[in-house]
Amino acid sequence: QVQLVESGGGLVQAGGSLRLSCAASGDTFSRYAVGWFRQAPGKEREFVACISWSGASTYYADSLKGRFTISRDNAKNTMFLQMNSLKPEDTAVYYCAGKAPATYYIPNSAYTREGLYDYWGQGTQVTVSS
């Protein structure tokens, strides 16, 4: 069993930056791939980014490349999402999610799907004012 807790959300002006954290406890989370998703008011939850268990591989939503950076510190069981040049349309609740190790190959495209993930945090609100 894994517990995920996001933090770091808040209110920021357009053009500003925020760094979200996702702290994990429970199982050996260093073996898990991690994804970030977001859900804006009235919209479906969407993929933001994911990172492999080692941190060597990352994958981003095309629209967010260059502004958002995902990283992890396995020694601290913590994952991060650095968000720069924020825009009002980035306003959403941001969730981290964990995918337990698999014995089969999973293509990057699969990590964009919510259903792949086994554990979810409660979310942290990010509000970007214009």
Description of the molecule:
The protein has 130 residues and is an all-beta fold. It has strands spanning 2-7, 10-13, 18-26, 33-39, 46-51, 58-60, 68-73, 78-83, 92-99, 119-120, 124-129. Strands 2, 4, 5, 6, 9, 10 and 11 form a seven-stranded mixed beta sheet that branches. Strand 4 (33-39) and strand 5 (46-51) form a beta hairpin. The protein starts with a strand and ends with a strand.
Write the layout of secondary structure elements.
Blueprint (H helix, E strand, L loop, with lengths): L1 E6 L2 E4 L4 E9 L6 E7 L6 E6 L6 E3 L7 E6 L4 E6 L8 E8 L19 E2 L3 E6 L1
Quick take:
Helix content is 0%, strand content 48%. It has 130 residues and is mainly beta. The strands form two sheets. Strands 2, 4, 5, 6, 9, 10 and 11 form a seven-stranded mixed sheet that branches.
